[in-house]
């Protein structure tokens, strides 16, 4: 931001009061005409000296205009300008933030969205920022609003939601290119909030739920496939041992009826009995 200093009114007021006091002293006979003239000159010189003093803060620079024309830039510290003839405008050189109010934008795929952002900028050339544009802060804000609408209007909703950082950089580059001519550097622009229509929010929520269900189904299918593969491997191993499947069946029957006081009758196929006999023969051969 900049602010100007015009000491003319202060100087005129001091001179008027000085003239009144001098006239009263002269009329009352307290001082002579010569002494009065010398006193007035001294007072005028002191007023001229002190009214031209200006203190510029460390984060500021002063743009000096002499009779309306730019004649130099004052650095931080104690400075002096010529009253009446010169004026000084102080420019803040710190990083400044400007909020971009919510903009209603239509994306490339015709979805209305509300977007707001924040701009970070800093004056690099104080004289250019004062002389080339009337209000550089307002100009940066308005240009950023236009750039935001242009960039967002050229992308689809999916890109807007997934590439926020890239779009922020595109907006920043567009604005910075223009503000360089104003002596202003835009360091960053951040998209803050993206407001979607209510019906679009419902659609996206349903899509997210469908995606979660799809992933859960895939995980269950993968688990069932792995279990089936293990069962197939176990069956193959049992088939390599004579009567192995029959023994596995007996173990399963025992788990079904663990209570010895109860009798359960199972109808077993002939192949099962043959498997038991084969297992017995296999065990006899192992003993021999």
Concise summary:
The chain has helices at 8-27, 33-51, 126-131, 136-152, 157-162, 164-179, 198-239, 244-256, 270-287; strands spanning 2-5, 53-56, 60-66, 69-74, 77-80, 86-92, 96-106, 112-123, 184-195.
Descriptors for this entry?
288 residues, alpha+beta, Tetrahydropterin Synthase, Chain A, 3 domains, 9 strands
Word description of this protein:
- The chain has helices at 8-27, 33-51, 126-131, 136-152, 157-162, 164-179, 198-239, 244-256, 270-287; strands at 2-5, 53-56, 60-66, 69-74, 77-80, 86-92, 96-106, 112-123, 184-195.
- With 288 residues, it is an alpha+beta fold.
- The protein has three domains: 2-92, no CATH class; 96-196, Band 7 domain (Tetrahydropterin Synthase, Chain A, 2-Layer Sandwich); 241-288, no CATH class.
- The strands form three sheets. A four-stranded antiparallel sheet has the order 1-6-3-4. Strands 7-8-9 form a three-stranded antiparallel sheet, covered by helices on one side. It has a two-stranded antiparallel ribbon with strand order 2-5.
- α8 crosses α9.
- It is rod-shaped, with a radius of gyration of 45 Å.
- The model has no long low-confidence stretch (mean pLDDT 78).
Listing every helix as H and every strand as E from the N terminus to the C terminus, the arrangement reads EHHEEEEEEEHHHHEHHH
Poorly predicted regions are none
Overall pLDDT level: 78
Oligomer: single chain
**Count of separate structural domains:** 3
Record the strand order, biggest sheet.
1-6-3-4
CATH homologous superfamily assignment of the largest domain? Band 7 domain
General shape: rod-shaped
Please name the CATH topology of the largest domain: Tetrahydropterin Synthase, Chain A
First-to-last CA distance = 105 Å
The portion of residues forming beta strands comes to 15-25%
What is the percent of helical residues? 40-55%
């Amino acid at each position: 931001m900049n602010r100007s200093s015009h000491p003319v009114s202060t100087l005129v007021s001091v001179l008027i009061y000085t003239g009144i006091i001098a006239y009263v002293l002269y009329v009352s006979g307290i001082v002579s005409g010569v002494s009065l003239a010398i006193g007035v000159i001294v007072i005028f010189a002191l007023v001229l000296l002190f009214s031209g003093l200006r203190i510029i803060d460390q984060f500021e620079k002063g743009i000096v205009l002499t009779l309306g024309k730019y004649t130099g830039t004052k650095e931080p510290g104690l400075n002096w300008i010529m009253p009446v003839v010169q004026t000084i405008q102080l420019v803040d050189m710190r990083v400044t933030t400007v909020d971009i109010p919510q903009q209603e934008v239509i994306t490339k795929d015709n979805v209305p969205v509300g977007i707001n952002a924040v701009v970070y900028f800093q004056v690099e050339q104080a004289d250019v920022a004062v002389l080339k544009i009337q209000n550089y802060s307002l100009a940066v804000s308005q240009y950023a609003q236009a750039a935001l609408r242009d960039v967002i209007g050229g992308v689809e909703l999916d890109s807007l939601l997934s590439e926020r950082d890239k779009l922020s950089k595109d907006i920043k580059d567009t604005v910075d290119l223009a503000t360089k001519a104003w002596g202003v550097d835009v360091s960053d622009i951040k998209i803050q909030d993206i407001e979607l229509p209510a019906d679009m929010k419902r659609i996206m929520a349903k899509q997210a739920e469908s995606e979660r269900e799809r992933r859960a189904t895939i995980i269950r299918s993968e688990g069932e496939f792995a279990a089936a593969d293990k069962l197939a491997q176990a069956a193959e191993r049992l088939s390599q041992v004579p009567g192995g499947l029959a023994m596995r069946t007996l173990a399963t029957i025992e788990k079904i009826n663990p209570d010895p006081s109860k009798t359960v009758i199972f109808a077993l196929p002939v192949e099962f009995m043959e498997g038991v006999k084969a297992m017995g023969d296999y065990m006899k051969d192992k003993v021999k």
